[in-house]
């Protein structure tokens, strides 16, 4: 036991002390923060530079109701259309409104370069509203009455659970499911491959025979797997802590720089400046919904499930990775043995996006989340949608049985493989090794 | 110290060791000899408990080999190496602790050995920064750091440069004087002949012969002598009437003749000498003793 601890300590420290570990640990949360900040910045800022639109209104219906925005200002043209055209500079537009605008509902926007969708959208949006008012007025409909009648139906999806009916949001569950399955898929590969590389390194260095004259091959393999697994958990923990800290700090900085960023007026001014304000408003209310649902999500439960299935899946696959590492002399030879390891993971990964996420309680989802080779990914897709306790427990029990089995099989190949130098192993050879007595 | 009893080891279709038995005495320097692929490494791995025999057993100081003996054996494998990126000091500490030393003990021993081998400044270096010769020294220290009672060296001098071979030979002799039993495994028999007091010869998974080097050589002595004398052109002759010896070969060299003779009918060299002294002017007389290599080749041919 003491020796396994020594091995775990070496495997753990030698990786955690590496510069690359520190870089990745700090870089990933920064990337998250950058992405998050970028999205917010993009949604708040528009094109940045402001443009001037010279208007020639032949109908005289529109021009007085056009409102300047932060990025667009409207001015009445003083010259004739042809003259005005020749004076247009960058970020200047000429809007020509025909006399029969009510019937034709067509406008010309002239500029020296292609007008952006934003400018086009803004103009059509404003003119639409003005025309609508005129048309409604002409039809004898009171606009204020109309505006006051705006039914808004919200469908609340309720999930019947043991704790009673809980609000659920399929969109949020989907997002979390996807994210969790991507994380499991990536980390199983990243840390599994680290185990494999570690084994190959020891074999290549020829240090392995010295080590196993002091400890059993199984102890060395297990020590390596546990050590690297702890590196993975450390990284997760640091990511969670760092991302949380960065997000909080980042949020505070943003809030202090833009104190009114999220005040109602600001929001409405943003929405009025965005072309499709109705869609934005919808998005905004969806965001509110998401926030509401996020608050209702049981994060400790999700994170525990994630950790259990990461650890289980990691133990199962890393043992196989270790066996592959022991069978080869260098990384280029690993290809032929990688396929059977990659296939179930890749299959489940593809299935999670295609099928599982749409039908998280169907038979395929059920079976994939029971088979130990596929359950870490499949179950994490399903967990946010709610999984009966008996299924969750059965899946975990099968996963534990699965990794005990793969570890046993892998260790039998490993103990022989690490001492085979310069021999190109085939599957037949591996079976032979498996059947060797000690 | 170590009793190897009727060991059989089978790998799939290949029989690596076929009922091999021998005994190694405490405090001896023992040669495990044989050509490549004879089964030496298989046997060493069994002694190190890396693999287990299919049949037979090994006794360590009279006890069946078990996990507690691991810390009492030091092993320098033929395929050897160290972690390239790890600091030498940390690496030593790790290997010594794996052999069961406490951290404090290990640190003290490492310091002692580093001083002895003039490696004090290496603690914070990485293996990849050391020359090959330096790495070999590190490797040797790692093998003996836990003061093992039994030191097993598999092809110890292949890959070592001549200066280090001498340094390490002396260290081995020193450790042996302090009570450690040494096993040398090699296919280059001449390299350990001078060091070993006992040997076992293995060929094609089977033991061919074992015993004390002096006894084996005695048993294979042919009572042949090389005699140099200054009388050019004169052949050595037996006294009239009886056969003392047989002349196998006579050659001229710069300062005279040299002849190879074999004593006959159990006569002693003194008898021949008493006779020859009257015949020629003697310069030199050496007994031709077969080398272990010669004995091995002879045995293999006979089997």
From TrEMBL, chain A:
GO terms for molecular function: ABC-type transporter activity. InterPro entries: ABC-2_transporter_component, ABC2_TM. The chain crosses the membrane at residues 21-44, 172-195, 207-230, 236-255, 301-325, 337-357, 364-383, 389-410. SUPFAM superfamilies: Periplasmic binding protein-like II. Residues 19-411 form the ABC-2 type transporter transmembrane domain. GO terms for cellular component: plasma membrane. Keywords: Cell membrane, Membrane, Transmembrane, Transmembrane helix. This is ABC-2 type transport system permease protein. It comes from Albibacterium bauzanense.
From TrEMBL, chain B:
This is ABC-2 type transport system ATP-binding protein. Keywords: ATP-binding, Nodulation, Nucleotide-binding, Transport. The keyword Heme does not apply. Gene3D superfamilies: P-loop containing nucleotide triphosphate hydrolases. Belongs to the ABC transporter superfamily. It comes from Albibacterium bauzanense. One of its GO terms (molecular function) is ATP hydrolysis activity. Pfam families: ABC_tran, DrrA1-3_C. Residues 2-229 form the ABC transporter domain. The keyword ATP-binding applies.
């Amino acid at each position: 036991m003491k020796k396994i601890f020594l091995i775990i300590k070496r495997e753990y420290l030698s990786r955690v002390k590496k510069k690359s570990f520190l870089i990745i640990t700090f870089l990933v949360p920064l990337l998250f923060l950058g992405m998050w900040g970028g999205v917010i910045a993009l949604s708040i800022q528009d094109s940045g530079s402001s443009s001037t639109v010279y208007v020639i209104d032949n109908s005289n219906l529109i021009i007085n109701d056009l409102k300047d925005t932060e990025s667009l200002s409207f001015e009445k043209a003083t010259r004739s259309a042809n003259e005005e055209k020749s004076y247009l500079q960058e970020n200047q537009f000429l809007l020509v409104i025909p006399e029969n605008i009510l019937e034709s509902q067509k406008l010309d926007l002239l500029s020296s370069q292609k007008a952006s969708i934003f400018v086009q959208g803004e103009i059509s949006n404003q003119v639409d509203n003005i025309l609508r008012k005129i048309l409604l007025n002409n039809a004898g409909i009171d606009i204020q009455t109309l505006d006051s009648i705006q039914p808004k139906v919200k469908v609340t999806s309720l999930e019947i659970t043991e704790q009673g009916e809980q609000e659920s949001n399929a969109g949020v569950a989907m997002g979390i499911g996807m994210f969790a399955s991507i994380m499991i898929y990536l980390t199983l590969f990243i840390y599994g491959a680290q185990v494999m590389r570690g084994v190959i390194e020891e074999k290549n260095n020829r240090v392995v025979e010295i080590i196993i004259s002091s400890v059993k091959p199984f102890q060395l393999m297990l020590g390596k797997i546990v050590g690297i697994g702890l590196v993975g958990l450390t990284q997760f923990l640091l990511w969670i802590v760092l991302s949380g800290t960065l997000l909080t700090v980042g949020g505070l900085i943003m809030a202090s720089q833009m104190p009114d960023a999220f005040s109602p007026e600001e929001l409405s001014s943003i929405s009025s400046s965005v072309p499709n304000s109705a869609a934005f408003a919808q998005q905004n209310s969806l965001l509110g919904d998401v926030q509401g649902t996020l608050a209702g999500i049981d994060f400790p439960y999700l994170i525990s499930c994630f950790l259990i299935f990461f650890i289980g899946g990691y133990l199962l696959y890393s043992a196989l990775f270790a066996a592959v590492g022991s069978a080869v002399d260098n990384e280029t030879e690993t290809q032929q043995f990688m396929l059977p390891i990659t296939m179930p993971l890749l299959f489940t990964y593809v299935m999670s996006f295609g099928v599982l996420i749409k039908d998280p309680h169907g038979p395929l989802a059920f079976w994939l989340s029971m088979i130990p080779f596929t359950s870490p990914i499949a179950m994490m897709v399903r967990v946010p949608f709610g999984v009966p306790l008996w299924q969750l427990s059965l899946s975990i029990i099968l996963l534990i049985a699965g990794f005990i089995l793969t570890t046993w099989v892998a260790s039998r190949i490993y103990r022989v493989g690490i001492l085979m130098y310069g021999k190109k192993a085939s599957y037949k050879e591996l079976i032979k090794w498996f059947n060797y007595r000690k | 110290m170590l009793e190897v009893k009727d060991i059989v080891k089978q790998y799939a279709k290949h029989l690596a060791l076929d009922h091999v038995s021998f005994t190694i005495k405490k405090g001896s320097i023992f040669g495990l000899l044989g050509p490549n692929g004879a089964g030496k490494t298989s046997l060493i791995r069994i002694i190190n408990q890396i693999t287990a025999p299919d049949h037979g057993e090994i006794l360590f100081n009279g006890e069946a080999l078990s996990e507690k003996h691991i810390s009492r054996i030091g092993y320098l494998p033929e395929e050897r190496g160290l972690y390239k990126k790890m600091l030498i000091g940390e690496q030593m500490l790790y290997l010594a602790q794996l052999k069961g030393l406490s951290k404090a003990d290990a640190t003290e021993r490492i310091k002692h050995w580093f001083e002895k081998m003039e490696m004090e400044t290496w603690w914070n270096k990485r293996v990849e920064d050391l020359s090959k010769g330096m790495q070999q020294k590190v490797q040797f220290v790692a093998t003996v750091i836990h003061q093992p009672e039994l030191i097993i060296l598999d092809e110890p001098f292949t890959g070592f440069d001549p200066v280090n071979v001498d340094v390490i030979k002396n260290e081995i002799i020193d450790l042996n004087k302090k009570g450690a039993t040494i096993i040398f495994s090699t296919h280059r028999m001449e390299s350990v002949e001078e060091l070993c007091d006992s040997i076992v010869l293995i060929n094609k998974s089977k033991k061919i012969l074992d015993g004390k080097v002096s006894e084996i050589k005695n048993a294979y002595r042919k009572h042949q002598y090389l005699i140099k004398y200054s009388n050019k052109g004169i052949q050595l002759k037996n006294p009239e009437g009886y056969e003392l010896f047989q002349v196998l070969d006579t050659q001229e060299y710069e300062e005279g003749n040299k002849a190879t003779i074999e004593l006959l009918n159990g006569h002693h060299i003194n008898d021949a000498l008493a006779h020859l002294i009257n015949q020629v002017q003697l310069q030199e007389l050496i007994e031709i003793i077969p080398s272990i290599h010669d004995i091995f080749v002879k045995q293999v041919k006979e089997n």
